[in-house]
Specification:
With about 600 residues, the chain is α/β, with parallel strands linked by helices. It contains 23 helices and 16 strands. The chain is about 50% helix and about 15% strand. A hairpin with a 2-residue loop joins strand 14 and strand 15. The structure holds adenosine-5'-triphosphate.
């Protein structure tokens, strides 16, 4: 067990609502878990639990792991601590009481890929977000919201974006539900409280009426302004609940013996106290893809070597990049590095809409039903993939592609109806050939083997779009040992001797996967967007940003930078906080990779 600091001890002793603040690695999560165990031991009545609410499943798994490591916590106390995400907690409330806010009794979750499909026709009517005026943005938002509400109330398909607002309305409107929840959870810990959105805050206000709240926050790790976090949120909490306030301030237990935390603080002010910081490396690279990626691969290999040499098996190395696009690019490079460097095994936190819809296509093909409209359904699933794979930003190209396939299909069917040959130049010829090839496969009953044999046919077939599906689906980790999907498919085979329900099983396992919390925190090499690193910790971190593209010596584009365009505008508070969060995820070392000819503006000292 750790030796608690004086402030941590005070937190354990204090009663009533609490606000615990402190910098990265200052021990907020740790002390709140010990506090939860103490409450479980001393204050809870039979049947009651203490609820630990967090934003992301990844944070949940880190907290669960921390609970497991705390040998001072008994099994019974552990059982009384319920760690959950806001999403999953809200869904539980909506499922039982949603009818109070106009939802039908039978509801299903509209997962992000299916939400993307449902909203794609609204969204594709607008230009890219950057080019929209404020009025257009508001109009687009209102139309999206209206469609979400229609889907929920008329069809019972509820998407995540509606959860917080509806639960807030429900709790404020029903004293009965409020007290039901508070009886079940008399104490609630709110992790990363600085990032609470307006709707989530309304929920918290209602919960705090009868439950005791413990909010954990670092105002300077606030990185979700773009979805409604508010710099005033901590003041709202203080005004509403008059909590005792405990500040763990600059304590740093995560990267003890290094100056990573100090460097993180200096990023906030732009005034660097030292030339070198222990635990921080700056690696410059040349501004062209070959050399940039070669430098990255070199740094990743060196870091991996250092970590393997520690002899531990649970080491972790995060490669953090500024954009989603770069997450994919870096993942592709690590999968197939140049020359004779073998693939660098890693996981990548890419957007899952495309991969999930691609998995649905594979699942559909596994069903091999060969019924009359089978090919039509297959093409329709491909069109859904085009509609949904762009997530919140469907591209015009994808929308056009879906239209083209639908048109081609009706022409195809017209020919068949008239007993004529299908058009030789149809875009569907390749698609049809692949469909036939898969229908002719003989499956083994081993979901892994069969899944991969379908994927291989897509990959090697004559349809370019299906090759993309094969590529996208590689990002799906659902077939790993013990997963819901793998078990479901194997069971299906045992029950009916085929994968007759593969599509339904796949859809269901993604919903369950979304709510599952029994995941281990990431280990090995992981690639992710800087925003996703919040609340996590790794042994080493490599931060890798984009570089300026020049033509005749002039910068013509400067994409994928930590600060947009790498230009110095105003105080850049959000960019500084975001960068600091990334830098301080490391326990031992953070390597920052920035282009030699255009070093990140946040690393240049502020003019005095
Ligand atoms: N008093 C302490 N003595 C030694 N180690 C500690 C102490 N408190 C916490 N730690 C350790 O320090 C690390 C960081 O702690 P923790 O995750 O609780 O910080 P945090 O404030 O929640 O961080 P962040 O806001 O960056 O997510 C953990 O590995 C934890 O076990």
């Amino acid at each position: 067990m750790v030796d608690l600091t004086e402030t941590q001890k005070e937190i354990l002793q204090a009663e009533g609502h609490q606000l615990v603040t402190g910098g990265p690695g200052s021990g907020k999560t740790t002390v709140s878990i010990l506090k939860a165990a103490k409450i479980a031991h001393e204050d809870l009545k039979p049947g009651q639990h203490i609820l630990f609410l967090s934003f992301a499943r990844a944070t949940v798994s880190r907290v669960l792991e921390a609970i497991d490591e705390e040998s001072a916590i008994t099994r019974e106390e552990r059982r009384r601590i319920e760690v959950d995400t806001y999403h999953s907690f809200f869904w539980r409330i909506l499922k039982t009481h949603g009818y109070l806010v106009g939802f039908p009794r039978r509801m299903t979750i509209l997962t992000p890929p299916n939400e993307a499909i449902a909203l794609s026709s609204v969204r594709s009517g607008y230009k890219a977000a950057k080019k929209l005026s404020d009025a257009e943005k508001a109009e687009k938002r209102a139309k999206e919201e209206a469609e979400r509400i229609r889907l929920a109330t008329e069809e019972g398909k509820v998407c995540f974006d509606l959860f917080a607002g509806r639960v807030a309305t429900l709790l404020h409107g029903s004293e009965k539900v409020r007290s039901l929840i508070s009886t079940m959870y008399p104490y609630i810990v709110l992790d990363e409280f600085q990032d609470t959105s307006a709707d989530q805050w309304r929920v918290v206000q209602a919960l705090g009426a009868s439950s005791t709240l413990i909010a954990l926050a670092d105002p300077e790790q606030r990185i979700f302004d773009f979805i409604g976090a508010d710099p005033e949120r901590l003041n709202h909490f203080t005004a509403a609940f008059a909590p005792t306030v405990h500040d763990l301030a600059g304590d740093n237990h995560r990267s003890k013996g290094t100056e990573i935390a100090l460097f993180g603080n200096d990023i906030l002010t732009g005034k660097f106290r030292q030339n070198d910081y222990k635990g921080i490396d700056c690696a410059l690279f040349e501004s062209n893809p070959n050399q940039a990626y070669a430098s990255l691969v070199g740094q990743v290999l060196q870091a991996r070597k250092r970590l393997i040499e520690t002899g531990r098996s649970d080491w972790s190395l995060a490669v953090l990049v500024p954009t989603k696009k770069m997450t994919r690019m870096v993942s592709d490079i690590l999968r197939e590095p140049f020359g004779n460097i073998p693939p660098i095994s890693h996981t990548a936190a890419v957007d899952m809409e495309g991969p999930i819809l691609a998995a649905e296509i594979i699942a559909f093909l596994l069903q091999q039903r060969g019924h009359e409209r089978c090919f039509d359904e297959f093409v329709e699933l491909m069109c859904s993939y085009f509609h949904g794979r762009g997530g919140t930003a469907p591209t015009k190209g994808d929308m056009d592609e879906a239209m083209r396939f639908r048109k081609a299909l009706s022409k195809w069917n017209e020919c068949l109806a008239k007993g004529r040959a299908t058009p030789g130049n149809s875009v569907l010829q390749g698609t049809y050939a692949v469909h036939q090839a898969i229908a002719a496969l003989t499956f083994t009953g081993d979901p892994d083997v069969d899944w991969i044999s379908v994927r291989d046919v897509l990959d090697g077939g004559a349809c370019e779009r299906l090759k993309n599906v094969a590529k996208d689906v590689r990002n799906v980790r659902l077939l790993e040992r013990g997963t819901q999907l793998r078990q479901g498919l194997a069971q299906d085979w045992r029950d009916v001797g085929s994968y007759g329900n593969a599509l339904a099983i796949t859809r269901q396992s993604f919903v369950q996967e979304h709510f599952a919390t029994a995941h281990k925190p990431e280990s090995g090499v992981v690639v992710m967007n800087m925003h996703k690193a919040k609340g996590k910790q790794f042994d080493e971190v490599v931060i890798f940003e984009g570089w300026p593209k020049r033509f005749k010596g002039e910068v013509v584009a400067n994409p994928d930078r930590i600060v947009s365009g790498n230009v110095h505008i105003g105080v850049m508070a959000q960019a500084r906080q975001n960068f600091r969060v990334s830098v301080t995820r490391a326990k031992v070392r953070t390597t920052i990779m920035t282009p030699r000819d255009d070093v990140c503006v946040l690393l240049r000292p502020e003019p005095a």
